[in-house]
Write a structure and sequence with these properties.
The complex is a heterodimer of chains A (145) and B (249). Chain A has 145 residues and is α+β, with helices and mostly antiparallel strands. Chain A is built from three helices and seven strands. Chain A has two domains: 32 residues; 86 residues, OB fold (Dihydrolipoamide Acetyltransferase, E2P) (Beta Barrel), CATH 2.40.50. The chains are: A alpha+beta (145), B mainly alpha (249).
Chain lengths: 145, 249
């Protein structure tokens, strides 16, 4: 083997080793979905009571209730089959609106109301002018989500 | 073809070529950035959900793209330098790192500024897209620190090259992070058939990506000229050039 071929081989083996190591770690990370729960899991009572967790769902239509004169508010998360009442004190993200996908981070209260200390909004990879979104909605497409 | 390649790889020839190309690339980049800014900030319509705030995309996406492109270039140049012992290839890798690091920082910064009003958070430690992009920044910084730790340039080249090649895995992770794990970051819009973006929004984004690439090329050529001079300080062509230019000045 010429020295150049040897160097090529060592660079090649380095790459193969890397691919194996990263494939294994990706697999491990995928299993570790962490503290994120779906609404049906929460509805079935499968949530930790001793620590914070995340729950995701859509904001139910017209469910947002603000306490006048303060930053306290309540809204309902839904996945169309299950609902969860969430209370939060603070500024909501701009993308918060009816039907929007939301992730709330906090603890379950004893009264069954989820007390969030963080509310995150997600958006999708579609961008369009408002007029297009309006006309799509008129034609029966749901623009958000 | 090989002859042309060898000539291109000769430091004095490349030094001259890079000097010729850099101002043209920079000029084209600045004109295209001006156009794309106007088209993106004025001509393009606001987004139906995010309003005018979505326009930060015209800096965020090109920066993020360059952060990955520069790293890939660094890794490929490093591999070429390791295998073929090509001087210019290591110079390319060394020159690309600070530019790539700058654009990585810009991508992280604009992402954070965008994420705060829209998602409701500046930063999420558990998010795969944000973490992998932050690791990319550390890889760039680590590469530069590692190089700086060696007195001998040849050993710096070799050690840096191994790190650059190892780190290329992270480029793949950044790209697929939004598909493989659940991320707050949405999926890809550009080059994705299932995503919608009208031409009035997409065209300025594409021209801005091209403009950033040209800008990267121009800065790259300027940095490479400096890097070549550093490496060839004692070469006859450099001394001749310096004394020759000094005689005219």
């Amino acid at each position: 083997m010429t020295p150049k071929q040897q160097r090529m081989l060592s660079v090649g083996m380095l790459l193969v080793g890397l691919i194996v190591v990263s494939a294994l770690s990706i697999g491990a990370l995928r299993e570790n979905t962490g503290f994120y729960l779906e609404l049906d899991e929460v509805a079935a009572g499968e949530f930790p009571t001793d620590r914070r967790f995340r729950v995701g769902g859509l904001v139910a239509e017209g469910s947002l209730n603000r306490e006048p004169g303060s930053l306290e508010l309540q809204f309902t998360l839904t996945d169309t089959a299950n609902t969860l009442l969430v209370s939060y004190t603070g500024v909501l993200p701009d993308l918060f609106r009816d039907g929007q996908g939301i992730i709330a981070h906090g603890r379950m209260g004893p009264d069954g109301i989820f007390v969030a200390d963080e509310v995150l909004a997600k958006h999708d990879e579609n961008y369009m002018p408002p007029e297009v979104a309006d006309s799509l909605e008129k034609q029966g497409y749901q623009a958000a989500e | 073809m090989w002859k042309w390649f060898h000539k291109l790889a000769s430091p004095p020839h490349f030094y001259r070529l890079a000097g010729l190309w850099a101002p043209w690339l920079m000029g084209a980049a600045l004109i295209l950035i001006a156009y794309s800014l106007y088209a993106g900030l004025v001509l393009a319509p606001p987004d139906y959900q995010q309003g005018d705030a979505f326009r930060i995309i015209y800096v965020h996406v090109p920066s993020a793209y360059l952060s990955l492109m520069a790293y890939t270039m660094m890794a490929v140049a490093s591999a070429i330098g390791l295998v073929w012992r090509m001087k210019l290839a290591h110079a390319v890798a060394a020159s690309a790192a600070p530019i790539g690091a700058s654009f990585t920082f810009l991508a992280l910064f604009t992402g954070s500024v965008w994420g705060h009003p829209m998602w409701g958070t500046w930063w999420e430690w558990s998010d795969p897209r944000m973490m992998t992009e932050l690791i990319l920044l550390f890889l760039y910084l680590g590469y530069m620190a590692l190089r700086a730790a060696f007195e001998d340039r040849k050993r710096a080249d070799r050690a840096g090259a191994v790190l650059a090649i190892v780190g290329v895995v992270n480029v793949v992770l950044v790209h697929y992070s939004v598909e493989w794990w659940s991320s707050l970051h949405q999926g890809q819009t550009v080059m994705n058939e299932d995503a919608t973006m009208p031409a009035s929004m997409l065209t300025p984004l594409l021209t801005m990506i091209l403009a950033f690439t040209l800008f990267f090329g121009a800065v790259m050529f300027m940095r490479l000229r400096g890097e070549i001079l550093l490496r060839e300080t004692n070469a006859r062509w450099v001394r001749r050039m310096v004394t020759g230019e000094a005689a005219h000045g």
